[in-house]
Amino acid sequence: MTLPVDMSQKPDVxxxxxxxxxxxxxxxxxxxSTACAVIDPVMEFDQAxxxxxFGCADQMIAHIRDNxxxxxxxxxxxxxxxxxxGAPYIQDALGGKIGIGEHVQTVQDTFGKIFNEGTEFQxxxxxxxxxxxxxxxxxxxxxxxxxxxxxGHTPACMVHVIGDAAFAGDTLFMPDGGSARCDFPGxxxxxxxxxxxxxxxxxxxxxxxxxxxxxxxxxAISWETTIGDQRASNIHVGGGKSREEFIKFRTERDAQLSVxxxxxxxxxxxxxxGEVPTDADGNMMLKTPVNRL
Length: 293
What we know:
By secondary structure, the protein is of the alpha/beta class. The chain has a single domain, classed as 4-Layer Sandwich (Metallo-beta-lactamase, Chain A). It contains 7 helices and 15 strands. The chain has helices at about 55-65, 85-95, 105-115, 190-200, 225-235, 245-255, 265-270, and strands at about 10-20, 25-30, 35-40, 40-45, 50-55, 70-75, 85, 95-100, 130, 135-140, 145-150, 160, 165, 205-210, 225. The strands form 3 sheets. The protein has a 6-stranded mixed β-sheet, with helices on one face. A 6-stranded mixed β-sheet has the order 10-11-12-13-14-15. A 3-stranded antiparallel β-sheet has the order 5-4-7. A hairpin with a 4-residue loop joins strand 4 (about 40-45) and strand 5.
């Protein structure tokens, strides 16, 4: 694959792990300037108490401030179904533009119907500052970022390549973790296989940073691998596994998985760019549709 990025650019990448959702968020810094980006930030939600907190986001904000960095982008790799986004909270503190893939509009249309959102809920992605199309580039100081559309887990998934680092979202996990599920509305195992093959066509030495890790087999939580390691040993797609093998495995595996515990609040918030919906009186309020997923 010919990339409009320079593999000699080596961004500084720092991961922040949220143990409640097993999410890794990132601060990505241009080593030649003070510019940085945040990828997939978390807002914690205690569903039983209906309480929002911002521990992980506050750690990221403190790191950026303590190091005199300038936040230029807050990037969502997709509309997450397992944690709520901390993007607006970080933006309020530090600025920066919130970006997501342009196919968020498909997700908004699908889940706008499931949650019976009214006409006031815009389904055009206007809740975000930027919508990335496949192949779009953007700048983080002197670094060039490149957006790859990688549907399959969701229609809006993107992998972001920044210098010699790629941020996989949920498209790939660590090699011993495999790949993301495809059974949510708009998911497709065949599409995910094709997307993963595109990611695996990146250079072997490219660093790959994943969004979730669950420590399979009891190993320590980890979030950095390489494209070469994924191609050779990913348990779901590595070693030349065929599209048919993957679809069969992924379909059977997904049928055994439970629904993520935060899927209902996460989708309502994340399809709004991280803003919590409100009722007629302006109070933050979430819906629980019954028998719709």
